[in-house]
Amino acid sequence: MTHMSDPVSTAVRAMTAIGSGTRADVEAVTHPDNVNREAINEPPACRGRGPDATWATAIWLRAAFSNLRHTPHDVVADGDLVVIHATMSGKQTGPFVTYDEKARIAQVFAPTGRDFAVTQTHWFRLRDGLCIEHWANRDDLGMGQQLGWVPPTPLYLLRCARAKRTALRAERT
User: Fold this and answer.
1) What pLDDT digit, counting tens, does each position of 33-53 carry?
2) What are φ and ψ of residue 94, in 5° steps?
3) Mean of the per-residue pLDDT values of the chain
4) pTM for this structure?
5) CB neighbours of residue 21 within 10 Å
6) Could you read off the pLDDT of 99-132 as tens digits, one per residue?
7) Containing H/E element for 138?
8) Residues 21 and 54 sit within 8 Å (Cβ to Cβ)
């Protein structure tokens, strides 16, 4: 089925739906074969294709960051490719869990309660009027510094170790 819509608005809706949209919002802009090239450090459910995997990414991010939002600044489109320069912001109110290439818990960043705002560039490829591919360039170091992950204090390292043990226990049940 071909969807007639503006590629720019579709890509912007896809990016903003991750932070504040509903599952229906995600489904409305996500191709059944969509792949997120950034999902390598995300939970296993995020590594699939289509709206289910995209929604899993939204849930994963929202579990760690409340008030998560993406504010677009500049958008450029060329054919089936749309690039968005944006700021991602929020507050870390939950543990941020990353995964290794075998989908095992790699690291858990304990909640700090701090706000952050970092620039990112998101790239979307569209097919049939829907997002079929996504990748991004992010300022992860800047985010880590704003959240107090970098440089870590000894107390924060202890909190992260505790948070990782808790996440591993929860994963087993």
Assistant:
1) 999 999 999 999 999 999 999
2) -135, 170
3) 95
4) 0.91
5) 18
6) 999 999 999 999 999 999 999 999 999 999 999 9
7) strand 130-138
8) no
Tokens describing residue 44: 């296993």
Helix (H, G, I), strand (E, B) or coil at 5: coil
In whole angstroms, what is the distance from residue 92 CA to residue 136 CA?
21
**Encoded tokens for 13:** 């809706």
- What backbone phi and psi angles, to 5 degrees, belong to 91? -135, 135
CA 148 to CA 115: how far, in whole Å?
A: 10
Residue type at 128 in one-letter notation: D
The DSSP letter of residue 153 is P
Element (H, E) at 12: helix 7-20
Q: Write out the two tokens for 3.
A: 């969807």
Residues present in the chain in total: 173
Q: What is the amino acid identity at position 96?
A: F
Domains of the chain, first to last: 7-172 (3.10.450.50)
| DSSP symbols for 52-116 | HHHHHHHHHHHHHEEEEEEEEEEEEEETTEEEEEEEEEEEE-S-EEEE-TTS-EEEEE-----EE
